[in-house]
Amino acid sequence: MMDLEEIKNSAQKEWENIDSLESLEQWRIKFLSRKSELSQFFNNLKNTPLKERKEKGKKANEIRAFLNEIYQQKKNKLLDNSYSQKEIDITRPGVKIEIGHLHPLTLITRDLVKTFEKLGFEIVLGEEIETEYYNFDALRIPENHPARDMWDTFWIKSKGKNPVYTDEQKSKLLLRTHTSPMQIHYMETHKPPFRIIVPGRCFRFEATDPHHDFQFHQIEGLVVDNNINLANFKQLINEVLNEIFEQNIIVRFRPSYFPFVTPGLEVDIKLNNEWLEVMGAGMVHPDLFKKVGYSQNKYQGFAFGLGIERIAMVKYNINDIRLFFNSDLRFLKQFS
Ligand code: FA5
Fold first, then answer.
1. DSSP states of 218-262
2. Rounded Cα–Cα distance for residues 286 and 181 (Å)
């Protein structure tokens, strides 16, 4: 039997002359496989006296590592050569690069915003963090008012200095439960006539089901001038919905109550023989005009808050609102 040095020397000598992957494989079988002399050597180690065993084992391991190393070196070199010798077929179709696409909620929001823009509306954005005053009190929803039950709230704990809010406001920060606070913000800084929409995300601390999520999007609408009535609202909403759904939509107004409008109503649309609630609306309550300093009895206005997910669900035939937010690519890829 060859000793270790002999194995190493003859392996290295043969290695130098290898010039193909086939002969490299023969070499590997001869010097590194289970049938190789080196493996036999390892097998026989157990019969070697303990004193020698340690030293010989170490040496054999070093040689095996060395052979593996030169094997890999040669393999890389031969593979490199074989690739560079291959012709490149420039007529082969390329690999398709997958590019991203817009989320269904972005698509429907863009459609809605465009439709309102065409009708002369200005787009205004608000903050997702609001104070209790704008989200509730200024909208005639004081503490203990039963209407607050409709908007279970995520309150925010705010510590330390805050450049935006006073200490008093800071203790009452929340994630807005609807886009209606923007009615007050906007009227505080603008005089009528105007027509605005405010698209944005809202949050409610409530259990989820196929039609309710704890986060969702609304488009708030506010139109104020000195000759505005509910007929104007009906006309507008019919026009918008017909355009979005590309068909004549049947709309129903149901009396409802929101403290910041009077009268208040809920708008349902009929599709596939079913009524679906899509927004709350009404004529702006005169108290709001008073609060923002408008002259009394000079203006009227209507306001509405439309649920974007609900519209998207109808338009794209989606039966569970929670699909919008769970990042399931099987769902999202359908909108590319
Ligand atoms: C409001 O939020 C009022 N601010 C709407 C309003 C604005 C009334 C202006 C009058 C004047 P409501 O809670 O009904 O109302 O919500 C309005 C719409 O938001 C609903 O019709 C629905 O489409 C959507 N919505 C409400 N809660 C959820 C929820 N948890 N998940 C998904 N969509 C929701």
1. EEEEEEEESS--HHHHHHHHHHHHHHHHTS--EEEEEEE--TTEE
2. 16
Question: Could you tell me if the CB of 233 is within 6 A of ligand 1?
Answer: no
Provide the whole-model pTM: 0.74
Peptide bond into 263 cis (omega under 30): yes
Which one of the listed residues 64, 176, 195, 204 is annotated catalytic? 204
**293 DSSP assignment:** T
Could you give the count of Cα atoms lying within 13 Å of 73 in the half-sphere of its Cβ? Answer: 10
The pLDDT tens digits for 224-260 are: 999 999 999 999 999 999 999 999 999 999 999 999 9
Judge whether residue 284 has pLDDT over 90.
yes
1: tokens are: 């039997």
Distance CA 87, CA 78 (A): 16
Q: Is 301 in the pocket of ligand 1 (CB under 6 A)?
A: no
Q: How far apart are CA 32 and CA 36, in angstroms?
A: 6
Residue 2 has pLDDT above 70, yes or no: no
Strands 300-307 and 250-256: unpaired
Q: How far is the CA of 227 from the centre of ligand 1 (A)?
A: 26
Q: Given the DSSP bridges, would you call strands 194-203 and 274-284 parallel, antiparallel or unpaired?
A: unpaired
Question: Residue 236 corresponds to which tokens in the numbers above?
Answer: 């507008």
- With a 6 Å cutoff on the Cβ, whether 213 touches ligand 1 is yes
Q: Is the CB of 203 under 6 A from ligand 1?
A: no
Of 11, 198, 218, 314, the active-site residue reads 218
Centre of ligand 1 to C-alpha 61, Å, is 73
Is 215 annotated as catalytic? no
The catalytic residue among 278, 303, 312, 314 is 303
Q: How far apart are CA 176 and CA 158, in angstroms?
A: 15
pLDDT tens digits, residue range 303-324? Answer: 999 999 999 998 999 999 999 9
* Crossing angle of the two packed helices 4-16 and 37-44, in degrees rounded to 10: 160
Q: Are 203 and 215 in contact (CB under 8 A)?
A: yes
User: Which residue(s) pair with 131 in the sheet?
Assistant: 173
Mean pLDDT of the chain: 91
